[in-house]
Write a structure and sequence with these properties.
The complex is a heterodimer of chains A (116) and B (113).
Chain A lengths: L3 E4 L2 E4 L5 E7 L6 E7 L5 E8 L5 E2 L8 E7 L2 E6 L8 E8 L7 E3 L3 E5 L1
Parallel strand pairs in A: 2-11
Antiparallel strand pairs in A: 1-3, 3-8, 4-5, 4-9, 5-6, 7-8, 9-10, 9-11
Chain B lengths: L3 E2 L4 E5 L4 E3 L2 E2 L5 E8 L6 E6 L5 E3 L5 E5 L4 E6 L8 E9 L5 E3 L3 E6 L1
Parallel strand pairs in B: 2-12
Antiparallel strand pairs in B: 1-4, 3-9, 5-6, 5-10, 7-8, 8-9, 10-11, 10-12
Classes of the chains: A mainly beta (116), B mainly beta (113).
């Protein structure tokens, strides 16, 4: 199956700093990538849809100025958590959709963000 | 609003027991349906999917799911579970031709050896 990677897998930062998370599709091109947030014992919550070459579409309640998304190429999308606060601590997961074929997503391994 | 419900939050079974995990969704139009599995420490993996055709879908590792349109359900089944099936299972729904995936809250399955 298609492989999606995320970097870093784990990051700890101080409150007020910014953190960038990368999502890469390793063996396919993805015009659309998705960013999710997973709270403990809860399901994945879609944060935004990232389209290559255009602005991301954010879900209701997600601050676009806080969670900056850039999808500069067909294989890379980045999520930057700006001015991070402890409440931003969470597990962030990206997924990528195949360009062709059925509508299916492939998930990255996730990034555990801890804000002190 | 679109919603996906998984009513079993935590299931404990002994090996060789049969499994059925419930999934219901609220959207009335055409949908694509998925079951994903997340093994401890690993990322989400696709178990099976339904787009159209035979409502009984067979996936990997002996899992199957049945789409019952009248009940808005897509329950996951396995006749005989193994200890290695211990994981968290997520149901997901995607409205046809729409990007967004909606996930259920997940079901943790513990299989006792």
């Amino acid at each position: 199956g298609a492989v999606v990677s995320q970097h870093p897998s784990r990051v700890i930062c101080k409150s007020g700093t910014s953190v960038k998370i990368e999502c890469r599709s390793l063996d396919f091109q993805a015009t659309t990538m998705f960013w999710y947030r997973q709270f403990p014992k809860q399901s994945l919550m879609l944060m935004a849809t990232s389209n290559e070459g255009s602005k991301a579409t954010y879900e209701q309640g997600v601050e676009k100025d806080k969670f900056l998304i850039n999808h500069a190429s067909l294989t890379l999308s980045t999520l930057t958590v700006t001015s991070a606060h402890p409440e931003d601590s969470s597990f962030y997961i990206c997924s990528a959709r195949l360009v062709v074929g059925y509508n299916e997503q492939f998930f990255g391994p996730g990034t555990r963000l801890t804000v002190l | 609003a679109q919603s996906v419900s998984q009513h079993n939050h935590h299931v404990i079974l002994s090996e060789a027991a049969s499994l059925e995990l419930g999934c219901n969704y609220s959207y009335g139009g055409t949908v694509n349906l998925f079951w994903y599995v997340q093994y401890p420490g690993q990322h989400l993996q696709l178990l099976l999917k339904y787009f159209s055709g035979d409502p009984l879908v067979k996936g990997i590792k002996g899992f199957e799911a049945e789409f019952i349109k009248s009940k808005f359900s897509f329950n996951l089944r396995k006749p005989s579970v193994q200890w290695s099936d211990t994981a968290e299972y997520f149901c997901a729904v995607n409205r046809n031709n729409f990007n967004k995936f909606y996930f259920g809250s997940g079901t943790k399955l513990n299989v006792k050896p």
